[in-house]
Automatic annotation (TrEMBL):
Record's keyword terms, sorted: Cell membrane, Membrane, Protein transport, Translocation, Transmembrane, Transmembrane helix, Transport
Region annotation (Disordered) ranges: 45-65
Pfam families: TatA_B_E
Coiled-coil ranges (or none): none
Transport recorded as keyword: yes
Annotated localization: Cell membrane
Record's function text: Part of the twin-arginine translocation (Tat) system that transports large folded proteins containing a characteristic twin-arginine motif in their signal peptide across membranes. TatA could form the protein-conducting channel of the Tat system.
Positions of transmembrane segments: 6-26
Assembly: The Tat system comprises two distinct complexes: a TatABC complex, containing multiple copies of TatA, TatB and TatC subunits, and a separate TatA complex, containing only TatA subunits. Substrates initially bind to the TatABC complex, which probably triggers association of the separate TatA complex to form the active translocon.
Similarity remark: Belongs to the TatA/E family.
Organism: Sorlinia euscelidii
Protein name: Sec-independent protein translocase protein TatA
Amino acid sequence: MGSMSLIHWVVVVAVVLILFGGGGKISSIMGDFARGIKSFKKNMAEDESMSESTPPAGQITPPAASDAAFLKEAQRADEAPVDKKPV
């Protein structure tokens, strides 16, 4: 119980190499972590601004003129008969 097995020594050596391996590995890892947090916060702020610019669910906005062709095609698709096959 008092002695360390081979697995324990491997873990200790791995931790020492990571911490003291040189080249600023820990600082680069922390820098990447900080950039990830900043990116997350930026995207959350963009999502909030997008949700504020969309109309509430109860309001219907008229489609733009460029959407007319899409709307006609969607109406045709809704009116088209559907082949019903037994499953």
